[in-house]
Specification:
Layout: H1 2-20, H2 28-40, H3 45-56, H4 72-87, H5 92-102, H6 110-116, H7 124-133, H8 138-150, H9 154-173, H10 181-194, H11 198-209, H12 211-214, H13 227-234, H14 255-276, H15 279-288, E1 294-299, E2 306-311, H16 327-344, H17 364-382, H18 386-402, H19 416-425, H20 429-442, H21 447-463, H22 467-483
Antiparallel strand pairs: 1-2
Helix pairs in contact: 1-2, 2-3, 3-4, 3-5, 4-5, 5-7, 5-8, 7-8, 8-9, 8-10, 9-10, 10-11, 11-13, 13-14, 14-16, 14-17, 16-17, 17-18, 18-19, 19-20, 19-21, 20-21, 21-22
């Protein structure tokens, strides 16, 4: 009897598929067919999951209203998926869809999700099941990391993507085409970086850069990502930041990769100058900084925010004051080279599906704009002008907050981690604490902002010892040690590329 009922349900599913592929779109006929099928076979898990998928396809990758609540169809889909998983806890499609549906929701721990009745952690159990459900399907193994990132399980996210990459390599060796191998490497590199695993992050980033060579049959037209530069900058590993040579041609054009390459060079020069410039040259540098900081702006009607096309200019007639190749000259030349490359990055083109510029927009122009503000801030710090540095970083934070949800996030390093350091160095402990807590709201359990909070408590202890301060200090110490348990280096600040013991 059960076999007969399942056969009839399967036949109904096949009939519904006729509507699914009319003009290559899942229109209302397909959804209505599956709703009718589920009504006929209410105990059939496959029918329920396919109906949930059809509901989600009405607004792909765009499941939430502006107030953070689920759209009507998506809310129904979540109920269907959670009900299906109570009957079939290992159903691969139900697990996959529930991860996709919950990951854009509020990040945070399971306790936070339960108390709020929502949140990305609502999909954590599904992610734990999915990572082992179909071990030879790289994308499903990888998908668990979308949730792990959102609940602060960065090392677990890294491991999932390493496993997915191993499956991708087996596919390639068998003359099969893996699905989005670059995405697995990119998210793995981000996760390792957040966990403090610098060499693991760099290894995956370089593998992504070299993927066209490693998988020539599968990724002939793949971009050559510059993520390896961003990894080394984040960890202030200046001897390795330019390893592997300049990034090659990107399928969307070479401009973004070239600009990121120059970003790595200017950040490296800034670190060297910070150690070598004397007080007189710092004052000269301060005089050379354009008073307005950002010049020559153009409104980007597609993106919305104002995109700057030129930063940090030299006053006319002063360029020749430093000749030769001393640290100051190198710094100024490299600053010009970076901002010139930044101007070349084209406006982003709208894509569909998804909110804003869409799922497939790289948002390169906004990312480069953020990096321009980061460089501005780093150069202001060379003059010991923390207020101007703060202003630049707050502009960068505002732009970062305007970016849509994506995994991994469009910014390899959250800007708040650098802003928090600048505020902490200036002795503005309450302001720094607020920034670090904001970052932890968006990136739970990350050691970068936790070290900032730990250092704030250490500073408070030095100012006035109390049992409450000591208790907080011990608590942050334990939490940081746990978050950084896989880190391969000793973290001294939340933003090593900005760090200077004199700050």
């Amino acid at each position: 009897m059960r076999c007969h009922r399942l056969n009839r349900a399967g036949l109904g599913g096949l009939q519904a598929l006729q509507a699914r592929y009319v003009e290559h779109t899942a229109g209302p006929e397909y959804t209505d067919s599956l709703a009718a099928l589920l009504q006929r076979f209410p105990e059939d898990v496959d029918a329920a999951v396919l109906f949930a998928e059809a509901l989600l396809m009405r607004s792909p990758w765009n499941y939430y209203d502006a107030d953070g609540s689920l759209k009507g169809g998506a809310a129904k889909a979540r109920d269907l998926l959670e009900s299906a998983l109570r009957s079939a806890p290992h159903h691969p499609l139900a697990l996959h869809l529930l991860v996709h549906l919950t990951e854009p929701d509020t990040p945070g721990t399971a306790n936070r999700a339960v108390s709020a009745g929502r949140g990305a952690a609502r999909g954590e159990l599904a992610a734990d099941q999915l990572v082992h459900a179909v071990p030879d399907a790289a994308h499903l193994v990888h998908m668990s990391s979308h949730t792990f990132i959102r609940v602060g399980r960065y090392h677990d996210a890294y491991v999932a993507n390493v496993r997915a990459n191993e499956v991708d390599r087996r596919y390639e060796a068998a003359c099969l085409k893996p699905y989005l191998p670059e995405h697995n490497l990119q998210l793995g590199a981000y996760a390792a970086s957040m966990a403090g695993e610098s060499e693991a992050a760099a290894e995956l980033a370089m593998a992504m850069r070299n993927l066209r060579t490693a998988m020539p049959r599968s990724v002939k037209h793949l971009s050559e990502y510059p993520t390896h530069v961003l990894v080394r900058v984040r960890f202030a590993q200046w001897q390795k930041v330019l390893e592997g040579g300049s990034p090659g041609h990107d399928v969307r054009g070479p401009e973004f990769a070239r600009a990121v390459w120059e970003f790595g060079k200017i950040m490296k020069h800034a670190a060297s100058a910070d150690a070598e410039l004397d007080a007189a040259k710092r004052e000269w540098l301060r005089a050379e900084m354009a008073p307005e900081g950002v010049t020559d702006t153009v409104a980007n009607g597609t993106l919305g925010p104002v995109v700057s096309t030129g930063h940090w200019t030299m006053r006319k007639g002063r360029w020749t004051m430093w000749s030769g190749m001393d640290p100051g000259s190198q710094l100024l030349a490299q600053a010009r080279a970076f901002f010139a490359r930044a101007k070349e990055v084209p406006l982003d083109t709208p894509t569909r599906p998804g909110p804003g510029n869409g799922l497939y927009s790289p948002h390169h122009r906004v990312i480069i704009e953020i990096l321009c503000h980061v460089v501005d801030a780093r150069l202001w710090l060379l003059t010991r002008d923390e207020l101007s540095a703060e202003e630049g970083l707050r502009k960068a934070v505002a732009l970062e907050d305007s970016l849509p949800y994506m995994e991994p996030p469009f910014m390899h390093q959250p800007v708040r981690q650098c802003l928090g350091l600048v505020l902490l160095a200036a002795g503005r402990l309450a302001d720094a604490e607020r920034v670090y807590l904001e970052d932890l709201d968006e990136h739970p359990n990350n050691g970068w902002s936790l070290i900032g909070l730990l250092q704030i408590q250490q500073r408070r202890q030095s100012l006035h010892t109390s049992e409450e301060v000591l208790k907080d200090l011990r608590q942050f110490d334990r939490v940081f040690d746990q978050a950084w348990s896989h880190g391969d280096l000793r973290l001294t600040s939340s933003c090593p590329s900005f760090d200077k013991s004199e700050y």
